[in-house]
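Structure tokens please, single chain.
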Amino acid sequence: MVRPGRLTVLAGPTAVGKGTVAADIRRRYEQIWLSVSVTTRSPRPGEEDGVHYHFVDDAEFDELAASGQLLEWAVVHGRHRYGTPRAAVEKVLAEGRPALLEIDLQGARQVRQTMPGAFFVFLKPPSLDELVRRLVGRGTEDSEERARRLRTAEVEMAAESEFDISIVNDDVLRATDELVSCMGLTPAGGSPDPVESRH
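Here you go.
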């Protein structure tokens, strides 16, 4: 169980549903603070600046990284950069509130270096075949991008042993409630709204 004021880091392979689990937590668990990542990619349909991401250009991202304002950052799938604003995380932890980062494997490894006391959760698919089905089914990438993401996912799957616990995302509500339970909170009921993952 996660103590108050301890950071929980949720990571896992691309298309595993990290964003959907995070959105379900945002909808059903208002007491959990969710970090909003900074990214250099363009908004996808339905995404709002400051809600789903902070959308910035390359120069702005360079400044944030160079000035130490990011807790972690990474180039994802060889294209866009994503990062976690440091000040917001530190403020919430100082207040003793439950905080969750939904990030990629590169980011999780950086956070382990800077905040070794964090609790690391690996979200995994029921199988690699199911991961491929989800990746192809969401239709947001072309064939080249899907192939790139699948190669990345296979590498990410091999990192499961680096995490404190693993949760299988075979059902969003169940996976969300298991994560919330690990954070020391009582699971609630409801139905999820599917959304795109951070990466």
